[in-house]
Write a structure and sequence with these properties.
With 428 residues, the chain is of the alpha/beta class. It contains 16 helices and 17 strands. The protein folds into two domains: 122 residues, Urease, subunit C, domain 1; 289 residues, TIM Barrel, CATH 3.20.20.140. A hairpin with a 3-residue loop joins strand 16 and strand 17. Helix 5 crosses helix 6. The structure holds N-(iminomethyl)-L-glutamic acid (NIG) and fe (iii) ion (FE). N-(iminomethyl)-L-glutamic acid binds next to helix 4.
Length: 428
């Protein structure tokens, strides 16, 4: 007999119902049910609605019950842009940035991504896994139930595959679900200095086929940026990846306005991310093609750059997701509470839009909106219980996580009182 759980009497049950990204004003429709309940069987949501109705419809009296009186219940957060599998740190570079050096200056001097590539090439699989597990534990404690993870610190066939294999193995070791992305075009490695086009040929001819054959990644991403990979190079790589079944994502218009958003629309990308310098045409085209705009305010904060025009994008009908961009260089933070605070205070998203951006729209940004991102029958039971009665406390309690309980696939995997309480906890 399958495991059964019911969470009842939630002050607010936030459903975020839907199976597609929510754009524009629809981002405010988060589906609030007062005195709500959700029933779960075998890791899948059976019913969500007013407590009286859900309790009357339970099939049997063998449900584990959680009383969520005075608490808000909502879908698990999805961090849809994250680079958490890497070796080494770049604290010294951060200190240079504090003194005024720019991210690109450090990169041009041979630091930046290449610095992490060196350390990741040297790191063994066990070391990378252990680091990744600790990072997943930290994410879980802030309510992250699914994370997208990018390669991109290998830039050679073996190390790119090593990163992706570490991510695949985490499935057996940690409850946070990992959705892998191939980001081989993250920087031009030393071996290909001044020959970015040839490096793209190498990725297309020698790396992508292996990744596709072993199903190591769902998406292909590229750092489409002045001085890194051009629009034409990005297009060539992403089209080749599409032919092999990998959907497209882009690091777009992060440092300068290059037209990455327009390329994302042209290619039917699942998402375009960063977008600090997106053009007006880029906004219009992303809205029209319903490409999810994944905004990463903690990176803008860390780089001391102006924030992406999130308010304007939503007002013009774009579907916006929010993510951390956790990585060793531009944003060494996996903090969902920081992202929430910056989105509310500096990008002027409403609390409801922020919830949508971290749940159903984030699910859409990893092409999983039919399985994840909302509380409704048939979806995977990835659910958070907050310490407070309303989602309004998420931005209000600045920079602090108010997640009390995390449920993944219908199992309680983390509580504030006990920390990780899943049998796959990294301490064990
Ligand atoms: O999303 N912009 C490119 N990639 C990362 C930074 C990676 C790094 O600095 O290690 C980003 O900001
Ligand atoms: Fe990134």
């Amino acid at each position: 007999m399958g495991k059964k759980l019911v969470i009842k009497h939630a002050a607010e049950l936030i459903t975020c119902r839907g199976s597609a990204p929510k754009a524009g004003v629809a981002m405010n429709e988060i589906g609030i049910i007062a005195d709500g309940a959700v029933s779960i069987k075998d890791g899948i949501i059976q019913m969500a609605g007013p407590t009286a109705q859900v309790m009357a419809a339970l099939d049997g009296n063998d449900y584990e019950e959680i009383d969520a009186q005075g608490k808000c219940v909502l879908p698990g957060f999805i961090d849809s842009h994250n680079h958490f599998v890497f070796g080494g740190y770049r604290a010294e570079e951060f200190s240079w940035r504090l003194k005024g050096d720019s991210y690109m200056e450090i990169m041009e001097r041979g630091g930046g991504i290449i610095n992490s590539v060196r350390a990741t090439r040297q790191a063994g699989t066990t070391e990378l896994s252990q680091l990744a597990l600790t990072r997943l534990d930290s994410m879980l404690g802030m309510g992250v139930t699914t994370v997208e993870g990018k390669s991109g610190y290998g830039l050679d066939c073996d190390t790119e595959i090593k990163q992706l294999e570490v991510m695949a193995a985490l499935k057996e070791q940690h409850p946070v679900e990992v959705i892998p992305t191939f980001l081989g075009a993250h920087a031009v490695p030393k071996e290909y200095e001044g020959r970015s086009g040839e490096f793209i040929d190498f990725l297309i001819e020698e790396v992508l086929p292996v990744i596709a054959e072993h199903k190591l990644a769902r998406f292909c991403d590229v750092f489409c940026e002045k001085g890194v990979f051009s629009i034409a190079e990005s297009r060539r790589l992403l089209l080749a990846a599409q032919k092999l079944g990998l959907k497209s994502k882009l690091h777009a218009d992060e440092i300068v306005q290059l037209g990455g958003a327009e390329l994302a629309a042209e290619l039917g990308a699942v998402s375009a991310d960063h977008l600090l310098h997106i053009s007006d045409a880029g906004i219009a085209q992303m809205a029209q093609k319903q490409v999810v705009a994944t905004l990463l305010p903690a990176t803008a904060f860390s780089l001391r750059e102006p924030y992406a025009r999130g308010r304007e994008m939503i007002d013009q009908g774009v579907a916006v997701a929010l993510a951390t961009d956790f990585n060793p260089g531009s944003c060494f933070s996996e903090s969902i509470p920081l992202v929430i605070a910056l989105a509310a205070l500096y990008m002027k998203l409403t609390p409801a839009e922020i919830v949508t951006a971290l749940t159903i729209n984030a699910a859409a940004a990893i092409d999983e909106a039919d399985r994840l991102g909302s509380i409704e029958p048939g979806k995977q039971a990835d659910i958070l219980i907050l310490e407070q009665p309303s989602y309004l406390y998420l931005p209000y309690h600045i920079g602090v996580s108010i997640v009390e309980t995390v449920v993944k696939k219908g199992e309680i995997v983390w509580t504030k009182a006990k920390g990780s309480c899943h049998d796959k906890c990294s301490e064990k």
